[in-house]
Amino acid sequence: MSAERDNESLARQLLERAQAHGAEQAETGIQAASGLTAAVRLGEVDTLEYHRDKGATVTAFIGGAKGSATTTDFSEAAIEATAEKACALARRTSPDPANGLADADKLATEIPDLDLDHPAEIEPDEAIERARTCEAAARDVDGRITNSEGGEFEWGRGSMVYANTHGFLGGYTGTRFGVSAAVVASDDAGMQRDFWFSTGRDLADLEAADSVGRRAGERTVRRLGARRLATARVPVLYEAPVAASLLGHLVSAVRGTSLYRGSSFLVNAAGEQVLNAGLTVREEPHRPKGLGSAPFDAEGVATRERNLVDDGVLTGYCLDSYSARKLGMATTGHAGGVHNLYLEAGATSPEALLREMGTGLLVTELIGFGVNNVTGDYSRGAAGFWVENGEIAYPVEEITIAGNLKTMFRDIAAVGSDLELRSNIASPSVLIGEMTVAGQ
Predict the structure, then answer these.
(1) Distance (Å, rounded) from C-alpha 437 to C-alpha 440?
(2) Furthest-apart CA pair in the chain: how many Å?
(3) N or C: which end of the chain has fewer CB within 10 A?
(4) What share of the chain is helix, strand, coil (3-state, %, to 5)?
(5) Which residues lie closer than 8 Å to 56 by C-beta, 6 or more apart?
(6) Other beta carbons within 10 Å of 65
(7) Which residues lie across from 296 on neighbouring strands?
C-alpha cells in the first residue's frame, strides 16, 4: 500500500475515533516530508542533513467549541489517544458560533493534477557538488570576495492529506529543489555581502549552480564602497525580489484575522481604489509547477483564480471559514494563505525605470520589520544604490525608508517588465513616486 493510501486510511480512522468520542464535526490533516540539505563553506562540507518527518492533527468541534491534538505516532493506541484528547479539549473550551468545518458546498469536488511532483532523490555527493559549484562560481567573480557564508543545495518531497466529516478526503504530493550562495567582499571601505538563489518544483527548472553563484558574486561586489545618504524625500525603486514584500503587506492587511479584529489599515476597503489604476494583483492557485499551487486550501475549500486587485480596485479579502463567519461573509479558500499571488508586470524594463526615476533610491535589500498593520505606517532599514540622471551612481547602506502603505500603494508610478515567479508571492520592480529616505 502506498504512503498516500496509508495516510488516507489513517485520516478516516482519526475521524471515526473523534466521532466515537463525541465530536459533532471533525477534521484531520496528515503531512509527511523527506529531504536533504547540503551546505558547504569555503569549499568544505559544512552541513549535510537528511530529514524525514510526519505528523497528524485532528480537530474536534463539540457544541460550538473546538479542540485540537497532534501526534507523530501513528500506532493504533496513539491515534485513539489523540482523537480522545481533541474531544476532551473541545469540552474545556468556550464555544464560538464561528467555529466549525467549512460549508460543504465550498469544498473541492475535483482535485486537478497541478504537476507538482517531480521526484529526484539527489545523492549526498551530488548535492555537495552542486553546492560547492555554486559557491565556487560566486567566489571566482572577483578577487575582492574574501569570505563566504556558503553554498547550499536542497531537495524535499512532501505529501498532505486532508479529510473532514462532511465527507471530503483529498491529498497531493509535491517536490521542491533549491540552490543558493552568499558571499562576502572586502575593500578599504569595509565588507559587504549579498546572495542569489534559484528554486523550483522540478530539478530541471533550476538555474545552473554556477550561474546562480556568479549572480551572487556580482551582486556582492557591486555593493562595495557603500555610503550613507542625507535625509531627503525622493522617488524609490524597489528591485523585483524586494518589491514582493509590498504585496506581502497587502495580503496581511486583507487577511480575515486582521479584518475581524479591526487591526488593518484596509478594513472595509473592498471595492475601493487601493493601487493606481491599471495595476492588477492576480492569484493563480492552479498554475502548473507553481511554488504556491494547491487544489484546495487547509479546510478542503476549492481554490480559484482571481484578481485580488483589479485595475487598482480591491475586489475582496483573503478569508478562511472562521474569519468569514466573523465578518458575515463567505470563505475565499484562503485557510493557510494565498497561492501564487503576483503583481502583473508592466512593459518597462528595469533600466528604463531608472531613467524614469531620474534621481532617487534603488532598494535591493530590506532590513528589519517596521510595519504597523493597523495604521499602515512603514519604516524599514534598507540598502541599495543612489541613482542620478537615470544611472546608478554609487551603493548606499545604513539608511531607512519610510512612508505609509496606503499612500505608497496609491503612489506606485510604474512597474517593471521583470516579473519572475520565484516564490509564492512575486512582483516586478516597483517605482514609488516619493518616500522619506533617512540617513546621516
Answers:
(1) 10
(2) 73
(3) N
(4) 25, 40, 35
(5) 10, 11, 14, 28, 29, 30, 31, 70, 71, 72, 74, 79, 82
(6) 17
(7) 302
> Which among 103, 3, 109 has a CA at the least distance from the CA of 56?
3
Tell me which of 1.20.1420.30, 1.10.10.10, 3.30.2290.10, 1.10.472.10 is the CATH number of domain 3-221.
3.30.2290.10
Q: What is the pLDDT of residue 5?
A: 65
The rounded Cα 136 to chain-centroid distance in angstroms is 28
- For residue 332, what is the DSSP state? -
Is 345:428 a contact under the CB 8 Å cutoff?
Answer: yes
In this prediction, residues 433-439 reach a mean pLDDT of 94
Q: Where in the chain is the domain with CATH 3.30.2290.10?
A: 3-221
**Cα 5 from Cα 13, distance rounded (Å):** 12
Q: How would you label 369-404 residue by residue, b for 16+ Cβ within 10 Å and e otherwise?
A: eebebeebebbbbbbbbbbeeeeeeebbbebbbbbb
**Looking at 188-343, which runs of residues are DSSP E strands?**
190-200, 232-238, 281-283, 306-310, 313-314, 341-343
Taking phi over 0 as left and psi of -120 to 50 as alpha, with beta for the rest, 279 belongs to: beta
Q: Are 393 and 385 in contact (CB under 8 A)?
A: yes
Rounded CA gap, 248 and 342, in Å? 10
34-37's contacts with Cβ under 8 Å and 24+ in sequence apart are 34/156, 34/157, 34/158, 35/154, 35/155, 35/156, 35/157, 35/158, 35/176, 36/121, 36/122, 36/124, 36/127, 36/154, 36/155, 36/156, 37/127, 37/152, 37/153, 37/154
Kindly state the cell numbers that stand for 339.
Answer: 497561492
> CB neighbours of 74 closer than 8 A, spacing ≥ 6?
10, 54, 56
Q: Give yes or no for residue 369 having a pLDDT over 90.
A: no
Comparing CA positions, the residue from 294, 56, 54, 29 lying closest to residue 164 is: 29
Q: Is the pLDDT of residue 1 over 80?
A: no
Distance of CA 90 to the CA centre of its chain: 32
Rounded to whole angstroms, the Cα distance separating 350 from 237 reads: 9
* CA 58 remoteness from chain centre: 25
> Residue 380 carries which DSSP code?
E
Q: What is the pLDDT of residues 110-129, one digit of tens each?
A: 999 999 999 998 999 999 99
Is the pLDDT at 3 greater than 90? The verdict is no
Return the DSSP state at 333: S
Cell 555554486 belongs to 134
